[in-house]
Amino acid sequence: MPVINRIADYADDLTAWRRHLHQNPETRFDCHETAAFVVARLREFGITEIHEGIAQTGVVAIIEGQGAGPTIGLRADMDALPITEETGADYASVVPGKMHACGHDGHTTMLLGAARYLAETRNFVGRVALIFQPAEEWGGGAGVMVEEGIMERFNIGQVYGVHNAPGLPLGEFHSRAGPLMAAVDTLWVTVKGRGGHGAQPEECIDPVAAIVAMVGALQTIVSRNRKGTDSLVLSVTQIHTGSADNIIPETGWFCATVRTYDKAVQDMVEARCHEIVTGVAAAMGVSAEIDFERGYPATVNHEAETAFAMGVAQDVGAGIVECEPDMGAEDFSYMLERRPGAYLFLGQGEGAGLHHPRYDFNDAVAPVGASFFARLVETAQPRG
């Protein structure tokens, strides 16, 4: 079963909506105009139960089916990135320093397309909760919406999301049961010694030497503390210290990104970071402040729901592929921690990658994503 014919009829509207959103990007929780655009479209579709102001600018809209039944959640993120656009498109961002470089304009459009179709046909029982979320890129908007109680408030039983994927064949869905994307944590370390003249190191306590030793020792977590079958990335990404070639600085700091799939591995890494930094600091006579900042949890798809979603994807898309886990991160993970569901990647063909200033969502894939969302509902909660 290919793209739903009625949704294919919306293609020009989908393109117009997406390009309007693309021209007017908003970041973090400040998605006021985006949310207003979404709400205006939902009202045009005849949807009357619309809840605004969740996680500041998030929206949840409810479509009632024909008959009693469960509630299925469909999620789209709405926020953009602090990037200056270089696409040269006629509909390029008009907001300096901001652009939709991750395709959330397309995600919002796909869910709006599904909403229009579902509101017209209502060929399902129970209810659909349309979740339009701010602050995926920064701020964990999904987690905030969950903490504000959307799953309980709207009695959502299962939840699904989609992300576009440049470089994958157009219309092809990729996903897997179990860990799909990693947890992302950040280690911050500030080191204080005693500064002085570079020609007299014996009178100083050198934070540079301590930082170098700490960074080297931290690499042993992957090689010596990780079980071979566990996945782990620890990358030191910034080191900042010093002001001149002949001055031993007083302080310095560094940070690292940590990616894991398993909470036990995550806990081990945090403990070892504290032990290593504290131990090196004591050995070298410096003080160290350590902050292991936990970010988005791992995105873990539920087995039955993933099989179901991939079956639907097979019907509406250009094929399905069971993919390898990815070390990127996604805050839809918070929703999957609270309810069963699945997250899928949808290929949009060749083009610049995500978070690139020349990236652009492929409008040809929007009817595929909208059809996927709609068929999820009709298949999960069929009439009769």
Strand order of the largest sheet: 1-2-4-3-5-16-6-15
Tell me roughly what share of residues is in helical segments.
25-40%
Form type: elongated
What is Rg? 24 Å
H/E element order: HHHEEEHEHHEEEEEHHEEEHEEHEHEH
Q: Tell me the distance between the termini.
A: 20 Å
Uncertain runs: none
> What's the domain count?
2
Tell me the β content.
Answer: 25-35%
Helix and strand content put the structural class at alpha/beta
Number of DSSP E strands: 16
* CATH architecture classification name of the largest domain: 3-Layer(aba) Sandwich
Short account of what is shown:
The protein has 384 residues and is of the alpha/beta class.
Could you explain the architecture of this structure?
The chain is of the alpha/beta class. It has two domains: 5-180 and 298-380, 3-Layer(aba) Sandwich (Aminopeptidase), CATH 3.40.630.10; 183-294, Alpha-Beta Plaits (2-Layer Sandwich), CATH 3.30.70.360. 35% of the residues lie in helices and 26% in strands. It contains twelve helices and 16 strands. The strands form four sheets. Strands 1-2-4-3-5-16-6-15 form an eight-stranded mixed beta sheet, with helices on both faces. A hairpin with a 3-residue loop joins strand 1 and strand 2. Helix 2 (11-23) runs antiparallel to helix 4. The longest helix is centred in the C-terminal third of the chain and has 22 residues, at 263-284. The chain is elongated, with a radius of gyration of 24 Å. The two termini are 20 Å apart.
